[in-house]
Amino acid sequence: MARKSAREAAMKMLYQFDLLGENNQHALKDMTNELSLDKNDLFYIKEILDGCLLHQDELDKIIADRTRGWSLDRISKIDMSILRLALYEIIHRDDIPNSVSINEAVELAKIYGNEKAGSFINGILGTYLRSRDGTSEKD
């Protein structure tokens, strides 16, 4: 399976976790069987799930700091799942270029979010990278 599909599966698992409030190992097993995931895909998905859950407070703070005047509960659960996944990759995965994480997040948002989700997610991630890298909006 391509990394793109594994990333989509990880996003769906994060979304399910956010809805149910638990890490459902049965759902991961079902998804594994349904999508014919290989060992590398499973390792990636497990790392993303574990990492996003472990660093959720950090990721949510980054998101909250960039959503001016919005509380996190106003952001759809699917958008939060996509943002957490992308931010986790950007911060904690050196093997994935930031541009890939952002592009994949925007594509997921276009598929699963509303018509403005892609722009919203691109804005949050871009703002984070500019602040982290010390560049201004005009750079």
Structure description:
This protein has 139 residues and is an all-alpha fold. Helices cover 74% and strands 0% of the residues. It is built from 7 helices and no strands. The longest helix is centred in the N-terminal third of the chain and has 18 residues, at 3-20. The protein is globular. The mean pLDDT is 87.
Task: Looking at this protein, list some descriptive labels.
139 residues, mainly alpha, 7 helices
In short:
The chain is mostly helical and 139 residues long.
Shape: globular
What is the count of helical runs? 7
In whole angstroms, the N-to-C terminal distance is 37 Å
Number of strands: 0
How much is the radius of gyration in Å? 15 Å
The structure class reads mainly alpha
Spans of at least 5 consecutive residues whose pLDDT stays below 50 are none
